[in-house]
Amino acid sequence: MTVVFTCLDADTLGGVQQVTHTLAQGLARRGHEVHVIGLQRAAAPFRYVPRPLYHHHVLSNRPAGAGGLARRRADRRLRSLLDGIGPGYAVLTSPSVVARAARLLPGSLRPIGQYHGSYDHARDCWHLASIRRHYPELDQAVFLSEEDARLFSEHALLPNASALPNPLAGWPEAMSVLESPRVLGVGRLEGVKRFDRLITAFARSGAPEPWELHLVGDGGELDRLRAHAAREGVADRVVFRGRVPAAAMPAEYLAASVVGLTSDYEGLPVVLLESAAHGVPAVAFDVSGGVRSAGPVLVPPGDVDAFAAELGRLVDDEEERRRLGADARARAEAFRLEHVLDRWELLFAHLER
C-alpha cells in the first residue's frame, strides 16, 4: 500500500520528525510505498535515516513559518504531488498540518490525523480547538496512549480516536552497566523542556563528585542554562554536549546511569523509550499518559525538590538502578518497532474494511 506522512517540516531535530522517519523506514522495509513530505524547509536539517528506503520531499525552500506566496506555492506543489501518488493513506502529523493539508488530499488518500502531544497540553493551548474542529472529519485520529485517546474521545467528541504509541527505531542488544557517574538529559535546549529544572534538581540531589549531568541537544536556551548552572554551583559538573548524531545516541545511553526528564509537556517522549531499552532508569514529571506508559519514576509536575530526592536516591543506590533498569527494558518491549508497525498495519486493514 501507499502511506504518505506529511509534516510542517520533516527534518527539524524533534520527536515528531524522529517518529515520522522511523515509521517511514519501517513501513518501507515491509514493502510499502512510503513518502515523507515536509511542507517547508527545516532551518537546521537533521538526518535521521542514513539510507532511506522511502521518498522524501520538501515543498518549499522557505523555512517553517513562512506564509503568503511561499505557502500558496507549497500548497499547489502538495496537491500536484499527492495527485500523482497511488491510493492509500495520508498521515497528517499535527493539528496545523491537518488544518492546512486535509483539504488538499485527493479522494484516493484516506486521512489519518496524528497528535504527538498529551490531552493536557492540547487543552492548555490552541490545539484542542483545532482538533475538535478538524479531526472528526478524518478517517482516524491517532493519539499516543489509551488514556489520551479516551480523553480526546470524551472532550473533543471524536468518534474516531485510537491509540498508537511511538516506536523505538531499533532494539539494543547491550544494556548500560549503570556504573558510570552520569545523569543524562536529551532534547532541544528550549523553554518547554525546562532543563533549568533538571540542573537545579541535579544540584539539590546531593550527587557527589565525580557525578556529572550531561545535556545532549542544542537550542536558544544554551547561554541561559550555562548561567543557571553557575548560579546553582554546578557549572563544572554540567556538560553541554550539543547535537549528537542519531547513530551515536546508543553510546550516550550506555554511558549513563540515570535519565532525567523535566518538561512542562510531553506526549510519549522517545528519550524515555530509548533509555528504557538500554536498561537505564529514568525520573520524570508525571505530565501525560504517554509518560506513564514508559514506566519512569514519576514525581508531581514541577516539583523540583521531589525530583531531586528521586534522582539522589538512584544516584546513591546502584542495586535500585539495576532493578528499575531491568523493569524499564521489559516494559520497552511493547514499543519495539516491529510491534508498533504491526499495529499500524492493523489500523490500515481496519480502515480498508
UniProtKB/TrEMBL annotation:
Q: Which InterPro entries match?
A: Glyco_trans_1 (IPR001296), Glyco_trans_4-like_N (IPR028098)
Lineage, top-rank taxon, reads: Bacteria
Transmembrane residue ranges: none
Domain Glycosyl transferase family, by residue range, is 180-330
Q: Which Gene3D superfamilies match?
A: Glycogen Phosphorylase B
Domain Glycosyltransferase subfamily 4-like N-terminal, residue spans: 14-160
List UniProt keywords, sorted A-Z. Glycosyltransferase, Transferase
The protein, known as: Glycosyltransferase
Organism expressing this protein natively: Nonomuraea monospora
Tell me the organism's taxonomic lineage: Bacteria, Bacillati, Actinomycetota, Actinomycetes, Streptosporangiales
